[in-house]
Design goal:
The structure is a single chain. By secondary structure, the chain is an alpha/beta fold. It contains 22 helices and 30 strands. It has a 10-stranded mixed β-sheet with strand order 22-21-30-29-28-23-27-26-24-25, with helices on both faces. A hairpin with a 2-residue loop joins strand 1 (78-87) and strand 2. The longest helix is centred in the middle third of the chain and has 24 residues, at 415-438. The chain is elongated, with a radius of gyration of 42 Å. It binds adenosine-5'-triphosphate (ATP).
Length: 893
């Protein structure tokens, strides 16, 4: 049994001593030393034996070292038992160095049952030696279709063993993954390395074998350990690729012959261990099951991602100067950080509905808000769909807290709101460009900390809605988006565009590339592969709670699969954090401006209402809330210019509400007795509203008259021109209350008469003629006076042109554009009513009436278009509605 240089007698004694030592780990070193001393006493050891002694001593020391489950398999090889050597003096365990850059090859494949058993035993021992989660196993079995791995089923169930690769394509994909793993490990921090144990139960085809062989040369930093069976193959053929750092086993009928382990040879001449080895059999099924259960439990524990894991140790501790960063989740055991910076200034996020888009955004937004103070970060949050994505961040009756970074939040937004947000951002961009210029720098990051404005992250959920109309509004959105995407990077303006569908986005007038080329960071949630390159199908296999994060514009090969925690399931943590941040808000911080698409605003709830008081120069007729970022009140100043009248147009009954809001807001700007109101409820259903309105106005001390259609022409004639009797405001000898009028001139009106006659330009002396359904009076207005040949229409037109000059304004609701145009006397007179609120009027008709060819307006419930022909303002508004209790007129100031 004397094979090579290891002397049989000496080895026998050493082995016996070592065999006993291994049985009692803690005793190993001491006994080994005893054995060595005994050997030394017997004479100088042969050089070969000295090496064996050294190596076995180290093995023994190792065994006495880390307890099971604690070995670091990527730092250095660990001794793993493969069987028992038999000598004349008895047996001793054979331990081979594996992992830490050392590998194993067996010349027979797993069709020899001993090989399968050996591979499984080694897999189990390596897994048992390392901490849970530190080893991942991938199997290759192209010969027996994975049969070699069947007994390891509990490990498969535990998620530490991948389903074996059984076809050439599977093997190629597995090697791709292994090579990526190796590259990642080589560039990653040593502490984060996970060992990939590649187990080939048979040698793969030559190409793949060459790749497998290359991995054995990659060194310990690659964190790969290869166990390959069927190598080198028996029989003739091309020389197989040489393996690096590998212990080679050869099987004969009964035994295995063990080659020299890498770096720790048994022999001087490469002949290996001079003892036949009986390989270990399968590990007991119960042990495999127990190991699987232990690893599965540990994996569950390790993988339980909590929302709080995303948060930093301290709040608002980071500077946004170089960019914004937050932890999104984990890839394997590694934390994944995402950034808004020069490399990834904008993000594109895709995922089918229910894929976790809202959760993803909440994770990111709260993660950022916890890291950066509001002076470093602001948020504009815009959602186009029905849902609750961003309601978190705004105060409600139940929870008054808000996220202090949120500047504006749009919930179920209109496209117009979206464009308003983009316009606001462009304004910000221009302002920032000035600041940068003044400081002689080209990037926000280069500004001194004291003057550096916050970075602004704008999230647009379901952004494709912006382009849905293929109209002027869509074109504006595209223009704005392109400019912001292009320039935002330098100015600290970042965009997150999220969508459940990128179809329609292609129709970006050929500018999709120009826009999305500026979005290097792509996040594909389940069903969101559309944001990746067409050749990149990494999103196909995603489950809820994971995403492909790609920093190369979606290109294949730059994917990281990230798991992120379920923010919905951590509502209490979110609320705690929000309250904490809210409590820390800077003094004077204001809650975000909120636009809720479904809301029906009431005049008396609007902050502008509270600010109205008598004494201003030009009274303002408020009609609704603008669809803009600030949610400002929308209205018309009614000054002395000809044409300062209000026409509300459309059949929608909201027309009456708009007139009511305009009337009440005007009344609030007049001291009692300085304005009078002539109310003509001509449309069925408006009498009650006019009655209530009259009562409210009278309670506030304003003279009110009610008119019916027949009385209207005379009153119009009376107030149309300054020289008409009764033209002046505040009860200047009105014809008396019309039928059913509840009030006459208010008490005290006589006292104001003198003032009313003091001059037509006196803004404090006004008459407001409020007609609910001017079109209903067309017969009465059309009638001609047989003596003068003047019709009511002539007087109406005189009023429109001359009335404002002496304080008389018409507030009229027409139910059709044609009637309005007719009453005005044709298109050339359209400026005679300069203030228009269009309700359900087709956009094309409105454009025609106004002489504006590219007017984009789609009539819909709860929206109106405000047009002021004098200052060329056209904007979408949400008209004030009348519901609930009456306001209390002008007395509650
Ligand atoms: N990381 C996660 N882990 C576990 N469950 C998750 C995770 N992310 C999301 N979910 C679950 O998936 C469901 C859908 O999530 P979410 O509301 O974010 O989807 P969405 O894409 O915004 O849907 P929609 O577009 O229809 O509003 C929720 O029930 C949520 O709890």
């Amino acid at each position: 049994m004397d094979r090579g240089g290891v002397g049989g007698q000496g080895v026998g004694r050493l082995a016996t001593a070592y065999g006993q030592a291994i049985a009692a780990h803690r005793e190993a070193v001491r006994r080994w030393e005893n054995a060595r001393r005994a050997l030394a006493a017997a004479g100088p050891p042969a050089p070969d034996n000295a090496e064996l002694v050294a190596w076995l001593a180290r093995v023994a020391a190792d065994l006495a070292g880390p307890p099971p489950g604690a070995a670091d398999l990527t730092a250095a090889p660990v001794p793993v038992r493969v069987g028992e050597a038999t000598t004349l003096d008895g047996g001793f365990p054979v331990l081979l160095p594996l992992a830490g850059g050392a590998h194993l090859a067996v010349d027979c494949d797993a069709r020899d049952p001993r090989v399968g058993e050996l591979l499984r035993a080694v897999v189990v021992r390596l897994l048992a030696a390392a901490p849970a989660g530190a080893v991942r196993v991938a199997g290759i079995d192209t010969v027996a279709f994975g049969a070699a791995f069947l007994p390891l089923r509990p490990l498969l169930d535990a998620g530490v063993l991948a389903p074996p690769a059984t076809t050439a394509a599977d093997v190629a994909a597995l090697l791709d993954e292994a090579e990526r793993h190796a590259r990642g490990a080589q560039h990653g921090a040593p502490a984060d390395r996970e060992l990939l144990l590649l187990v080939a139960a048979s040698a793969p085809p030559p190409r793949e074998l060459a790749r497998l062989a290359a991995l054995t040369h990659a060194g310990p930093d690659a964190a790969v350990c290869v166990l390959i069976a069927g190598h080198p193959p028996a029989g003739p053929g091309d020389a197989p690729p040489p393996l690096g750092a590998t212990t080679q086993l050869r099987l004969n009928e009964r035994y295995a012959l063990v080659g020299d382990p890498p770096g720790q040879p048994y022999s001087a001449d490469g002949s290996g261990l001079a003892a036949a080895v009986l390989l270990d059999g399968d590990p007991p099924a119960a042990s495999v099951a127990a190991l699987g259960a232990r690893l599965a439990a540990a994996t569950r524990r390790a993988e339980a991602l909590r929302f709080t894991d995303l948060l930093p140790a301290g709040r608002w501790a980071e500077s946004a100067g170089p960019g914004l960063r937050t932890v999104l989740g984990r890839a394997g055991r590694e934390q994944v950080t995402v950034a808004f910076d020069d490399a990834t200034p904008h993000w594109l996020v895709g995922g089918r509905t229910g894929a976790g888009k809202t959760v993803f955004l909440l994770d990111v937004l709260y993660g950022l808000a916890a890291r950066y103070a509001p002076a470093e970060l602001q948020l504009l949050l815009l959602d186009f769909k029905e849902g609750v994505s961003f309601t978190e961040f705004v105060p409600t009756e139940r929870d008054p807290s808000w996220l202090p970074h949120a500047r504006a939040v749009g919930i179920e937004s209109d496209r117009e709101y979206g464009v308003a947000v983009l316009r606001e951002l462009r304004g910000e961009l221009t302002r920032r460009a000035d600041v940068l210029k003044r400081h002689g720098v080209t990037k926000l990051a280069d500004l001194p900390a004291g003057v550096r404005p916050p970075r602004i992250v704008t999230v647009v959920d379901e952004f494709q809605v912006l382009f849905a109309g293929n109209d002027a509004l869509a074109r504006q959105a595209v223009d704005l988006l392109e400019e912001l995407a292009r320039k935002g990077r330098s100015y600290g303006l970042h965009l997150v565009l999220a969508s459940q569908s990128t179809t329609g986005v292609e129709a970006l007038y050929g500018r999709a590339e120009a826009i999305f080329g500026q979005f290097p960071l792509r996040v594909a949630l389940p069903g969101g592969g559309g944001v990746l390159d067409p050749l990149n199908d990494a999103a196909k296999a995603l489950g809820i709670g994971s995403a492909v994060v790609n920093t190369a514009g979606g290109a294949a090969g730059a994917n990281t699969v990230v798991r992120f925690p379920d923010a919905h399931a951590a509502a209490a943590d979110l609320a705690t954090l929000r309250h904490e941040l809210w409590a820390a808000r800077p003094a004077g911080a204001r809650p975000p401006a909120v636009f809720r698409g479904y809301e029906t605003p009431r005049l008396t709830d609007d902050p502008a209402w509270a600010g109205l008081r008598p004494g201003g120069d030009v009274p303002l007729a408020l009609v609704g809330r603008a669809v803009d970022v600030a949610g400002s009140a929308a209205g018309f100043p009614l000054d002395a210019t000809p044409g300062r009248h209000l026409a509300v147009v459309g059949t929608a009954t909201a027309g009456a509400d708009v007139l009511r809001a305009a009337t009440l807001s005007l009344a609030r700007q007049h001291a009692p007795g300085t304005a009078r109101f002539l109310l003509a409820p001509l449309v069925a259903g408006t009498a009650e509203l006019a009655g209530d309105l009259a009562m409210t106005l009278a309670d506030a001390g304003h003279p009110v008259e009610r008119l019916d259609a027949p009385a209207l022409p005379d009153r119009i004639a009376a107030v149309a021109t300054p020289d008409q009797p009764g033209a002046s405001a505040a009860g200047g000898s009105p014809a008396g209350p019309a039928a059913g009028a509840p009030t006459g001139p208010a008490p005290g009106s006589a006292a104001t008469d003198a003032g009313a006659r003091s001059g037509p330009a006196d803004a404090a002396r006004r008459t407001y003629l409020v007609v609910f359904g001017v079109d209903a009076a067309s017969a009465a207005l059309g009638a001609t006076d047989p003596a003068t040949f003047r019709s009511g229409h002539d007087d109406l037109r005189a009023l429109l042109r001359q009335g404002p000059g002496h304080g008389v304004h018409l507030l009229g609701w027409w139910r059709g554009l044609r009637r309005l145009a007719e009453d005005l006397g044709g298109a050339q007179h359209r400026d005679d009513v300069a203030c228009l609120v269009a309700l359900n009027v087709p956009g094309a008709d409105l454009g025609l009436h106004l002489g504006v060819h590219d007017l984009s307006y789609t009539p819909r419930a709860g929206r109106a278009l405000l047009v002021d022909r004098h200052d060329h303002r056209v904007r979408l508004i949400v008209p004030f509605v009348h519901s609930g209790p009456e306001p209390d007129g002008g007395d509650d100031r």
